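Researcher: Going back to the complex we discussed earlier. I've cleaned up the inputs and rechecked each line, so this should be the final set. Can you rerun the prediction on the complete assembly and write out the structure?
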Amino acid sequence: MPQFLVAIHHPDNYDPSIEGEAMQRDISSLNKEMVAAGVRLYVAGLEPAPKAKSLRATSNGEVLITDGPYLEAKEHIGGLWILEVADQDEALAWALACRAPVEIRQCFQKPPQPTDTTSR
Amino acid sequence: MPQYLLANYLPDNFDPSTITPEMIRQINDLNEELEAAGARLMACGLSPASQAKSVHGQPNGKPLITDGPYLEAKEHIGGFWILEAADMDEALVWARKAAFDPSSRGEVREIPYSSLAGGTPHPSRVKP
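Model: Rerun complete. Updated structure for the full complex:
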């Protein structure tokens, strides 16, 4: 069964204290529904993007580390689910149920492998 | 033990055929090292950002679904690990190892709430 990343996006100045009890109950209910349906492989909430560290490799082999998210944008991923569902439409149905700005991406079925393994 | 998202970024026009056997060997070696250290909870490669779908809430309550990634940028997450590490510095040690190619671009984010074993459940899930 295909796996999908459903990533919630938050503005960088997102204030978690606006999440009232009703919103927390909704998210909690949705998670229980996902678990009951056997589609939820993983869920995580992330620390705010300004607390991220970013890495850029350089041609001389050094790695530059900077504070903050890698992409220069006003919103960043705030949390994510990995769902196992039949297809992207089913992932989309779950994404709509969370009522937040989200992006859905399919995970590869298999990690990349060398194409010439048979010749070794 | 805290969990960390280690995301790697790829340009939207990334061509997977440019991945050399040497790069695959390096990434497999790193995954084996992460497994041996017990630090890798999950590894996931994503389909290209152009195949993403995005959902935008609307004031009328009918969400708008669009093709493509949510953020308007020239690079997007290509894959990620969920790692378990003592602290951000330890997570960054792994992130440095993952940046083995001059084109490597990554981001590390701490995960305060996670459903995996060893993770902290969100406060709303904790029964009083």
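Model: Worth noting: Chain B has a mean pLDDT of 92.
Researcher: Good, that matches what I expected from the previous run.
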